[in-house]
Amino acid sequence: MKFSYKILLSCIITMAVALGIGGYLFVNDVFEASMEREMEQAADDSNILQFAFETAALNIPAKYDLLQNSAVKEIGANLEKRGQGTTRFLRLSDENREILYSSEGFVEDKDLLASIEKQTRVYRVIHPDEHYYIQTGTEITALDRTLYLETMRDVTAVYKERTRGFLVYRNLMLLILVVSSVIMFFISTWLTRPIRLLTKAAKNMTDGDYSYRAEQVSRDEMGQLTQDFNHMAGVLEKNIHDLEAEVQAREDFIAAFSHELKTPLTAVIGYADLLRSRKLDDEKHFLSANYIYTEGKRLEAMSLRLLDIIVTKRGELTAQEIDVEVLFGYLKDMYGEQHKNPFVFQYEPGRIYGEADLLKSVLLNLADNACKASEPDQPIEILGEKRKEGYFFAVQDEGVGISEEDCQRITEAFYMVDKSRSRSRNGAGLGLALCSEILKLHGSALEITSTLGEGSTFAFVIPYKRQPAVPEEEAVM
Ligand code: ADP
What we know:
The protein is an alpha+beta fold. Among the domains are: 3-163, PAS domain (Beta-Lactamase, 2-Layer Sandwich), CATH 3.30.450; 316-474, Histidine kinase-like ATPase, C-terminal domain (Heat Shock Protein 90, 2-Layer Sandwich), CATH 3.30.565.10. Helices cover 57% and strands 16% of the residues. The strands form three sheets. A five-stranded antiparallel β-sheet has the order 2-1-5-4-3. It has a five-stranded mixed β-sheet with strand order 7-9-10-12-11, covered by helices on one side. β11 and β12 form a beta hairpin. The protein is rod-shaped, with a radius of gyration of 56 Å. Mean pLDDT is 88; it is low at 470-477.
């Protein structure tokens, strides 16, 4: 069953119960008030009749000062006559509770009569036929006799009024329920609209439309829920895109790796086949064997680089404070005076927080790439500068430069701008990928600025101190 129908049904049930109980109590209260009035009336009737009887008894000339049964009957009949046209009945009984006079239609049973006690008036409601009556009973004394007077007052109208009250109230309740059901239907449909919109959004997302967002139609808890849902959808969408990009990157990596493996292997297999199938002269024999050797070396270097990347990716940093002099000293030793490119070292003294061997590897890769991209005699600058965010390193060359499009991709594994040129220089497009992984471990990244034909700058920043751990909540945001 739909949620809006459930709300509607619960409201209808609640209203029906409330109206039912309320109506019953109200009609019953009115009925009881009327009955109380009728009781008082019945008591008044009984009093008047008692008084009238006693007065009449005094006025009847009695033999031997005794009130005869016949006189009682006569008075009863007179009282009856006077009350004609009303709904009043009476019955008179003697000391032995034997009936002396009874109005026509008076009940026959003597239950109430038997219960009359001295100076008390007793009551009961009886329902002998289709009518309802209030029956009263009291003791009267006239002359020397003690008699019993009973009255019956017709209160059928009060009962009918109650039945009519219930009927009117039931019809009114049905009308209220129908009208309020229609109103409640629209209210519940309006209230559950955010849920329907959320369901639609969830369905669209399940069908693959991750950019779909639920429309926010209120500012209450449902509005908050929609906002949270949309936020969650945004995070999910980003994660899915990241995962897709990662899967794509892995596929590209595998494709590039197989390709990089295939090229040298084809040459190795070709030259090996030549060596085993034919007798070659010494020079060709040497050239073939040399080709196999150099390609084998390239493969070895490539597999070692790959291993470095994988180890770096999985590894943890064993960082400590390092004097930048250690790094620049190492580079000065590597690219000293005798190098084909003039190296310029310009740096401020300072201390950084990182792993020296890994940072040496980054700077070595960048310096190596700068050499590969430059003609002999073109200068290469290695800079070190203290900045607010950390120690700034930069490797600058005036070589071939890199196009903007290539800049975006050169840190991908196996990406080479000029494949044949790179391969001829023993490259496999893994150097910058390794640098990126190492810098990621240091909480840093490569910044590349380059202009084709003018040169390139590869820069990065290393913190001075251990970075405080990011609290988990902030990290999620
Ligand atoms: P490789 O090991 O083949 O040099 P890298 O990942 O180090 O691979 O470099 C990827 C590509 O980026 C290279 O093919 C090269 O063409 C280009 N590259 C790297 N550094 C420079 C530079 N300083 N100037 C011009 N091109 C560069």
